[in-house]
Please model this.
Amino acid sequence: MIQLAAIDTVMRALADPTRRAVFERIAGTDEITVAELTEGSGVTQGAVSQHLKSLKQAGLVAERPEGRRVFYRARPEGLTPLFDWMNHYGAFWQERFGNLRTLLKEIDPRAMSPSSRARRRSSSMACCRMRRK
Model:
């Protein structure tokens, strides 16, 4: 069963382009500090901290305090609700495309044969070549 609240939380966290960039930077390293994330990001340390808070709440980031510094690392398992949702709808669309393919074969059996596709492709290429001249 797909947990809608978890999907909403992950999607909301990744919907913001700056937050998504922060997550991508974290995912590209083993661990990283707020100061390192702030360098060259174009946003303040406070803004980065707020983005990290959202990412932590979504389960996408974990923190490890060490003295006065806190290290952040990506939690790939936090993407599981999104992955499950995409798989569910991927299967949905595969089935729909299969139904469409069957319907097209019933309408015109020649339309889906490999030879008719090759003929269409070569005629469309000839048409494109004529337009360029």
